[in-house]
TrEMBL record:
Domain Globin: 1-131
Similarity comment: family membership: Belongs to the globin family. In the C-terminal section; belongs to the flavoprotein pyridine nucleotide cytochrome reductase family.
GO BP of this protein: cellular response to nitrosative stress; nitric oxide catabolic process
Keywords, alphabetical: 2Fe-2S, Heme, Iron, Iron-sulfur, Metal-binding, NAD, NADP, Oxygen transport, Transport
Keyword Electron transport assigned: no
Entry EC number(s): 1.14.12.17
Name of the protein this chain belongs to: nitric oxide dioxygenase
Known catalytic reactions: 2 nitric oxide + NADPH + 2 O2 = 2 nitrate + NADP(+) + H(+); 2 nitric oxide + NADH + 2 O2 = 2 nitrate + NAD(+) + H(+)
Phylogenetic classification of the source organism: Bacteria, Bacillati, Actinomycetota, Actinomycetes, Streptosporangiales
PROSITE patterns (UniProt xref): FAD_FR (PS51384), GLOBIN (PS01033)
Amino acid sequence: MDTQALKGSWRQVAQSGDQVPLFFYSALFLMHPETRSLFPVSMAAQRDRLVNALGHVVSNVDRVNELVPFLQQLGRDHRKFSVVAQHYPAVGQALLATLEHFLGDLWTPALARDWTAAYGLVAQVMTEAAEESSATSPPWWEGEIILHEVRVPGIAVIRARLNYQYPFRPGQSASVSTALRPKLWRYYSIANAPRRDNTIDLHVRVVDGGTVSTALVHAAQRGDILKISAPVGDRLTLGSGPARELLLIAGGTGLAPLKSLVEQVAYEGPPRAVRLFVGARTSRELYDTEALAKLEADNPWLSVVPVVSRDAFYRGEHGYAVDVALKAWRDQDVYVCGSEEMVQGSVSRLLDAGVPPEHIRFDEFTTAGGREP
């Protein structure tokens, strides 16, 4: 398999932009109409995901150690879309037709063989991972909303009780779907450590143009049933080594996974000094103040510091959470979560201030809006 030929041909195809996913899905649905029911009514967001996933696979085609875990997670994740092994040949056929269409005379028999072989390996890894996952977990859990509080305009805290035991680690995320927006899934971080009553908390902010976040904040109510995928991610989970002190920097609803870490230390120990800096633009956006104050009062090792950046009347700390947090850095492990812009800016500031990269933990895919465009 000529990996350089695969990369070069994909770069050529990607130059056609939005026409690529448009042609692919048109070909897929014309060749295999039965696959249309797997997708939401609106395909706008789905088109971006196809190009992003293909780009990631092709760019890492010669780095098997990085690519295989990505494909395995992709295979497990596609179970929630009701994708089964029989669907993969249909997708492969549409993909090859798309490549041939956009490459024209550059589409040679040798290149066709390379792409056929590459897709065959991708489908095999994804299918095997999905089958292995099906032996131990359902494609999704169902969670009944038992609490829905709009804390401030545009931000809701939702508690759902799941129908089966839900094994997750504090700091992980889950993909969530609501019947209000069928077949659309968005990732949200779980805001609590595991509980005996099998409930999880989600902190949801309305994102501009975000259909799922808007439905969850403004239309969802007690009694509604959410679909919750298997938990994913380990970038924001606590390590298994010695219990180091923690410096947690949250922006907006990026508070959710960091709050779960605080609960983990409270419930499981061992006790360690934890300083949590909660950033917001104005004091009005500090939506979880009461709960955080109770956590701080119950745990003498915890210090919670709210920070606002655009509120001249606020009497507490002003500025960006990372700048205030840096004043308290004493070689702790640092966890950062928030919008993509907030995370990138905070990590840059930490590195510039001399915090060792191995002491900084962040999820590069996490956004304060639940990874929703």
